[in-house]
Amino acid sequence: MSFPEKELIYVKRRDCSTQVEILRKMASGQAPPISTDPRLLFEIARVNKLLMHPGWPDLQGDAAEQVNAELNFGRMRGMLSNNRGLKLAAEITEALDAGQIPHLHLKGPLQQIRLYGTPLFKPSGDVDILVAPKDRIAAGKILEEAGFKPTEAELGSWWVHFLGERHFEAPDQPIFVDLHHSVQQPGLPRPRNLVGFLHRAVRQSVANSTLPVPSPPDMCLIAAITLCKAFLSHEPAGSVALDMIKAFESLELDERDQLEQLARQTGLSETLDFAMALATSSIGQDGLPPRSHELLADRSAETVRDMVFQPWKKGLSFPRRREILASLCGRDLWRLVRESNRAFLSNAFLNVIARTRKPVGEVGETKR
Q: How many domains does the chain have?
């Protein structure tokens, strides 16, 4: 799904290159310069989910007073949302464990604890759960019995069949649960043996609960998938690129070998390589020099950085969607044909909904 247009009103017609460089240095652990437009820095950080980063510069002056107040409020709201999400995640695991439904938690505060040592690194309004395709109906029933309400009925069939997820609203809380039975969207290659992610899940202790989460190599693969999805949809993804780097850095040497093996087995080698090229080129990190990739040929690190942090900027030459899909499918022609057909049918199905249910401009406006 595309990033909500209303979230980009302030930054859409502005060049945020100076502010992006500040965010890049902040994310890579360098001391950023602070001579900047405070409002523009705030807005570009907000859409890239970096407002809660501990390296945020100390903005001074009259123009920064309002921004600093909003920054503190945004951080407080993010903390409340993440804490609610952790509590809800534990309740969901208790219910799914009781129903003997294998599952794991994707992204969110649990991932932040593993990558950054805190569940309060960036705001998260969703609880993302992965189950096997054969268990999606049973898992949905368990959630409904626990008081969760299905949402987005109008786009429900499209979400289920093409994006591989259903959305539920938590009872009495402004939090959504995304129940996934897939981890990839049309236009990108799906991983082979999805249930392998569930079989390799590990348990993470949080408060008085232990919750299933991806193994360290799988966490890196899922971060790669998430970054490639954002790139395909032209969504601002500065924090996702940072997740990619941190996920890779967190691996032991034997886990890095395992990552390469799993990437080959799941057909995600090309996805992993592309995500690493995006992350290292856009942020950079000691010990992880920028990687090259055919999809980014003849594009400077500054251009890649803009594609990741401010993809709306005029003049950016993004690879075409079919070029991305072909590259990430590698040499598997039949896989390319299957995924191309899936992308075509997804767009056709969504267009039918647009014509019959809502004006075209409203279709796709979701909770996100």
A: 1
